[in-house]
Design goal:
This protein is of the alpha/beta class. It has three domains: about 120 residues, Nucleic acid-binding proteins (OB fold (Dihydrolipoamide Acetyltransferase, E2P)), CATH 2.40.50.140; about 130 residues, 3-Layer(aba) Sandwich (Rossmann fold); about 45 residues, no CATH class. About 45% of the residues lie in helices and about 20% in strands. The protein has a five-stranded mixed beta barrel with strand order 1-2-3-5-4. Strands 7-6-8-9-10 form a five-stranded parallel β-sheet. The protein has a three-stranded antiparallel β-sheet with strand order 11-12-13. The longest helix is centred in the C-terminal third of the chain and has 44 residues. It is elongated.
């Protein structure tokens, strides 16, 4: 390969990190791998002091690296044994540093409960294909509900958590409780009836909730009729069943899935303290905008008043009078300067005339000779014999006879 080909190829080569990131993005964007259950046998079990659980899930032909974080693992400690046959639920992700893909587990079930879980997966796949879980079907939750309907057991801890949370966050809302069994064979029918009773009361949002439990305990919320009923609801429904790691088909059919009953109450209500802060902020902002608007309006009014005053006839006359007074003052100043300049010019000319006149010449010792007619004789050739002339000097005149 030529050198320039090598450098051209290097310009387009990906780093190891970029490759791992690309693989991560591809795997973690696959909806199938985001919510997956895998059956196999636990091996290579490791429980470091961090509290996380690392293990391999294997069958006859292959193996899969798995990890469960400490916050979740405590609930399933008794199920982690080398050689145990389990069903692990979670998502597929990539550990970029080692370029390793693995299953990030959030729940573990023994194979002994596999039939029930397989029924869960079968029904989930069936309803999912029908589009009951599509995001486009989800309805938005009301921001400030006035009436909140609750379907749960009247004797469980969930109802108290919901009441306390709603009262703390949004005490303006009315709470309608429609009680029902949340476990057992009769629970699905009671849940559907309780839901329909609430629909007649026309609440703004409905919460369906209960505390955590095993797959069997929560099975009522996987009932197909219940799921179809909630999926077709015209009122927004929030599912708050179990703990964060518990999933039921109701969660997928509801408009919003909350991890716990308390989280469902939080999702259904705004925080009154946040609203009070928002109102205070908007009040300050509104007052500032009003002051700015009033200031601008006042300035505009002042400008209009000034324009009106300038446009009034009397004000125009006064303005013209001021202009005339200024012109009169300027004319007087100009005339004074002009007459002064002319006077100085005349004085200068007068002095020049005096210095050039006959008197000035006589005062310097000269004399003028005039004939009998008073004409000044300027040349010797103009004299005639026996002609009488007058000699003018500075201190007097003398008559003379030309010989």
């Amino acid at each position: 390969m030529q050198n320039f080909d090598f450098f051209s190829l290097a310009d387009f080569a990906l780093s190891v990190s970029e490759v791992n990131q690309q693989v991560k993005d591809l795997l973690e964007s696959d909806p199938v791998l985001e919510d997956i259950s895998v059956k196999g046998e636990i091996s290579n079990l490791s429980r470091p002091v961090s509290g996380h659980v690392y293990f391999t899930l294997k069958d006859e032909k292959s193996s899969l690296k798995c990890v469960m974080w400490r916050a979740v693992a405590a609930e399933f400690q008794e199920l982690f044994k080398n050689g145990a046959a389990v069903i692990v639920h979670g998502r597929i992700g990539v550990y970029e540093r080692d370029g390793l893909y693995q299953l990030y587990a959030d729940a573990v079930y023994p194979v002994g409960r596999g039939k029930l879980f397989e029924e869960f997966l079968r029904l989930k796949e069936k309803l999912e294909k029908e589009g009951l879980f599509d995001s486009g079907r989800k309805k938005p939750l009301p921001y400030m509900p006035e009436r909140i309907g609750v379907v749960t057991s009247s004797s469980g801890a969930a109802i108290q958590d919901i009441f306390n949370t709603i009262q703390k966050r949004w005490p303006l809302a009315e709470i309608y409780l429609s009680p029902a069994s949340v476990q057992g064979e009769d629970a699905p029918a009671e849940l559907i009836k309780a839901y329909k009773n609430l629909v007649e009361m026309k609440p703004d949002v409905i919460l369906i909730a209960r505390g955590g439990g095993s797959l069997e305990d929560l099975w009522a919320f996987n009932d197909e009729t219940l799921v179809r009923t909630i999926a077709s609801s015209k009122i927004p429904v929030i599912s708050g069943v179990g703990h964060e790691t518990d999933f039921t088909l109701l969660d997928f059919a509801a408009d919003f899935r909350a991890s716990t009953p308390t989280a469902a109450a939080v999702a259904a209500t705004p925080d009154r303290l946040e609203i009070i802060q928002a109102v205070d902020f908007l009040t300050v902002k509104m007052n500032r905008l009003m002051r700015e608007k009033l200031d601008k309006t006042a300035e505009k009014i002042n400008q209009l008043n000034r324009r009106f005053e300038l446009a009034a006839p009397l004000n125009q006359i006064r303005q013209e009078q001021k202009i005339l007074e200024q012109i009169h003052i300027r004319l007087n100043l100009w005339a004074d300067r002009y007459f002064k300049q002319q006077r100085e010019l005349l004085i200068g000319l007068s002095r020049r005339l005096e210095s050039a006149g006959p008197s000035s010449v006589l005062n310097r010792g000269y004399a003028l000779i005039e004939d009998e007619n008073g004409k000044i004789i300027v040349s010797a050739s103009c004299f005639y014999s026996d002609e009488k002339v007058t000699i003018r000097m500075k201190d007097g005149d003398r008559d003379a006879l030309i010989l």
